[in-house]
Amino acid sequence: MSDIAIRVENIGKRYRIGAPSQQFRTLRDVVVGAAEAPRRWLQGRALLSDPVNTIWALRGVSFEVRQGQVLGVIGRNGAGKSTLLKILSRVTEPTEGLGEIHGRVGSLLEVGTGFHPELTGRENIFLNGAILGMKRVEIARKFDEIVEFSEIGKFIDTPVKRYSSGMYLRLAFAVAAHLEPEILVVDEVLAVGDAEFQRKCLGKMGDVAQQGRTVLFVSHNMSAVLRLTQEALVIEKGGLALRAPTAEAVDYYLSRGMARQGERTWEADELPDPASPFKPLALRVRNPAGKVVDTLRSVEAAEIEVEYQLSAPVTGLRIGLYLNTGRGEPVFTSFDTDDPALFESMETRPAGRYLSRCKLPADLLNEGRFVIGLNASSFRIRRYFQDEQALSFTVDAAGAPGMHWPENRQGPVRPRLDWQIDRLDS
Amino acid sequence: MVPQPKTLIAKNGTTPTVFLRPSHGWAALNLRDLWQYRELVYFLSWRDIKVRYKQAVLGATWAIIQPLMMMVVFTFIFSRWANLPSGNLPYPIFNYSGLMPWLLFSSALSRASMSLVGSSNLLTKVYFPRLAIPLASVMAAVVDFGFSLLVFFGLMIYYQIPLTWNILALPVFVLLAVLLAFSISLWLSALNVMYRDVQHMVPFLINIWFYISPIAYGSEIITSPTWQFIYQFNPIVGIIDGVRWTLVGGAFPGTSLLITLAFMLLVLVGGLFYFRRMEKIFADMV
After folding, report:
1. Do strands A183-187 and A105-108 pair parallel, antiparallel, or not at all (unpaired)?
2. Which residue of chain B is at minimal alpha-carbon distance from A11?
3. Is the ipTM of this complex over 0.85?
4. d(Cα A240, Cα A1) in Å, to the nearest integer?
5. How many domains does chain B have?
């Protein structure tokens, strides 16, 4: 047939939220309801059919992927990316629409699926391989390669519950990476592990792509998406917002997909853990006049502020800002209690409403688009909140050093360095 | 509504084509998919067995200790005090030969009924035929049966009771016990995904079932023909009496075995279709 690997038409998935409501109004309803009840129970309908309590996690999505294409999928948390991948990897059925897939699909929806802590590394390689759809002979053939890639070495016969989290992860990824499906679906596996291993994983992904296999790559790491894919889908609110060359898709995602003019607030469904004592209220970028703006000037100082609510006292809390370029390269990381004296005086923050703010000095950033990631955690205890792409803003370089030469300057920062020029031969 | 298969695996050159679409009604069973994943069934039951005894000091001896201790307790209660008859057999032999198939059936049933919920991390992450999970659970129970059978042979030597050629039929009855447990667990495991009440119900069900099955006593103890007839509708009766017949002789359970087979066929086929129908919502509901 054609060279299409994946074709999806108008695919949609409905999920139930909350509890089903009982709606018996008349005696007749009650009688009919009671008579039908056993059947409804057997079919789980009692839990599924209530239209009021359902949401469409994904709807009306259509696209095609050619064989050998590496396609990026980007979108915010909760936009429907994971649902899409679950449908494509057949974990769940679509509620409507059609799809067709040519070739074996291997999914890395979560590395280490089916790992059992009591079993050794060796045993888990076989078990995990079988779960991912490999045949026993296939696993045996690749066994040495997997062990080598994972750098587990002599711990291969130790139960994985004794592994460090890094070792566990390396082993899990190693098994998954040695699957040889025609279509590989990868979801955010690179968000974990140390930088060295991440590089190795990205390398492996690149190899897979070069072997002519089809890859769907989902990530929040824009630089990885840019590096590995030529084309990307932007998923927004359960629909396909854009399909474009990756650079364009990333720009679209970073600019329109998320921020409203220099301020970011979170809706209830965007907060991963409603029970967390930390609740972000707003993240804002202000210019020196105190106005919330989307565009800052490189030559002016600016202010970044985080407004949040603590529903319980939190000890050792630190609010972190991660500044990245629009392409995902880190610029800096800073915490509100970086100053040891401040950290001590704020050892336990009582419940209440807070504003943590900091000044970005003038002449710091180069022109371009920047992304602020927000994080709230207690060091080595717990992470309360994280949003890697909380807010983006633009920096305008007018008046910055060197602007009399109309050229692009490399690098995310554009400091006004104090140059002196001395003549030495006089 | 016309039944629509969720996936049609058609060979297209070397690459299989899979169709994704919402399935309606009572979908086709798709057992071929299960056959392709047979190694997974093997690995999952191998994992179950391995993990079960891995951290226990006594390891696999537990598979022996449990039926042996039960037999000792029953011998005291039912033979010494209650004076239940055991025909011309020593009571321990009589009791143990019924305990073995019962424990095989009940542990297979309870493990398999909980299996889907216990594997929720797999269900929500990877595709494979969901039937593999309860199937692997019932298979794992057979290994324990093997251990307890070794002890039984020891007992036979101790009491100097010869085996007969009937024992050749033992594998058939083992298969029946496993199939019966599997058939029922198809319903229970799928229901447990939606209603966790099932996992409270199963231990209770097994407990009651034990007392209405011929383990501590023989089926002959029921003298009224009417009750005897009704008693045979307990599907495990035919299997337990059958295992006894293969090991220590006695009457061959003709009628009750037929009833068991009929019951099992009904529950198995119905269960396969029910499971298949519910399969699509496991990942969303579990």
Report:
1. parallel
2. B21
3. no
4. 26
5. 2
Interface probe, candidates B46, B127, B195, B274, chain A, greatest A C-beta count within 10 A: B127
Q: What residues make up the domain containing B6? A: 1-32
Q: Per-residue pLDDT averaged across B172-187, rounded?
A: 96
Could you give the residue range(s) of every CATH 3.40.50.300 domain in chain A?
67-255
Q: Does A98 contact B125 at a Cβ distance shorter than 8 Å?
A: no
B125 min Cα distance to partner chain A (Å): 6
Shared domain check, B277 and B158: yes
- Per-residue pLDDT tens digits for B195-249: 888 889 999 999 999 999 999 888 888 888 888 888 888 999 999 999 999 999 8
Instruction: Give the confidence band of B24 by pLDDT, cuts at 50, 70, 90.
Output: low
Which residues, 6 or more positions from A367, have their beta carbon under 8 angstroms from its beta carbon? A298, A395, A396, A397, A400, A409, A414
DSSP per-residue letters across A356-398: EEEEEPSS-BPSEEEEEEEEEEETTTEEEEEEEEEEEEEEE-T
Residues B255 and B146 in one domain: yes
Enumerate residues 307 to 326 of chain A having a beta carbon within 8 A of any beta carbon in chain B. Answer: none
Q: Mean pLDDT per segment of 10 residues, for chain A of length 426 residues?
A: 82 73 53 66 58 78 90 83 86 88 77 81 90 86 90 89 83 81 74 64 76 82 77 89 87 63 77 80 90 86 94 92 87 93 91 93 90 90 86 85 83 92 89
In chain B, which residues have their Cβ closer than 8 Å to the Cβ of A102?
Answer: 12, 15-17
Question: Nearest-CA residue of chain A relative to B50?
Answer: A119
A43 chain-B contacts, CB cut-off 8 A: 277-278
B126/A93 CB distance under 8 A: no
Whether residues B16 and B131 share a domain: the answer is: no
Specify the amino acid at residue A43: Q
Residues across chain B = 286
Residue closest to A8 by CA, chosen among A52, A76, A73: A73
CATH of segment(s) A263-396: 2.70.50.60
> Among A360, A371, A366, A367, which residue's Cα sits nearest to residue A255?
A371
Same domain flag for B26 and B121: no
How many CB pairs below 8 Å do chains A and B form together? 124
Distance from chain centroid for Cα B278: 21
CB contact under 8 Å between A105 and B7, yes or no, is: no
Q: Are A135 and B285 an interchain contact pair (Cβ–Cβ within 8 Å)?
A: no
Q: Is A268 on the interface with B (CB under 8 A)?
A: no
Whether B140 and B219 share a structural domain: yes
| Residues B21, B90 within the same domain | no
- What CATH class is the domain A67-255? alpha beta
Task: CATH 2.70.50.60 in chain A: give the residue spans.
Answer: 263-396
Residues B195 and B223 in one domain: yes
Same domain as B175, residue B103: yes
